[in-house]
Amino acid sequence: MNFKTIFGVTLFAFLSTIKAAPTVDIHNGYASLPVLNETYEDAKKGCSSIAADLYSSKDKSTYACLQLYMADREFKLITPKDAVCFYGNNKPYCVNSKYSNIEECSLTSEKYNYESCIKKLINSPLNIQMSFRDFNTKEKIISSPVIDSRECKGNNGIYLLNDATNYACIVKENWIYDPVTKGVCVKVQLGSEKEKIYCINEENTSINECLHNSESYDYRECARKLVKLGNNVPYTISAYEFYDL
Q1: What is the pLDDT of residues 88-118, one digit of tens each?
Q2: Which residues form the signal peptide (predicted)?
Q3: pTM
Q4: Of 134, 160, 182, at which residue does a domain stop?
């Protein structure tokens, strides 16, 4: 075998090795993490090793590793430049695709799509109890009674449902809003416990009379509807006297 033949065989073997390696894209100097499709147990161990949380379906067939993004870290293991990131309950998270098996969430996958990734995280059987907001705009990504209910309860709120188009979320507050300038609050009592202040969370509410920026906003009508919807939950909901219903 002459030198050219040996060189050709060696070069072919080297190129074959490179081709077999996982593809990693570079985005502004950061390496995108490939989807390695590790087993659930490996993903759980790996995700835990980087102090992240692994969410999975009951049968463990679908899982995603969500890692807090720390912008002030000198060494950033994962950043918005190389991963799908979003705000969950007002905290920045990124999907570590090395320990996830949702291809729409990996920048190196042909199926990658930011919106599809977020929708899969929200609608999948992973049961992630947090509010999802776009990383750049912090705007709500998707809305539905099911999602609003999940977000409301994830924020320790009380979800009041009439039907798919009429529902409200109220969350505990330390003071009563001015209904004219801020929004609607009601008194909530469970059994013999002390009354607590709960106010409308507009992001998870569909009743126009309860939305402060809506032309239909009417704090008295909103309070009436909240009191009525309170009949569907194990709480006593009542309006404040100064609402003058």
Answers
A1: 988 999 999 999 999 999 998 999 999 899 9
A2: 1-20
A3: 0.64
A4: 134
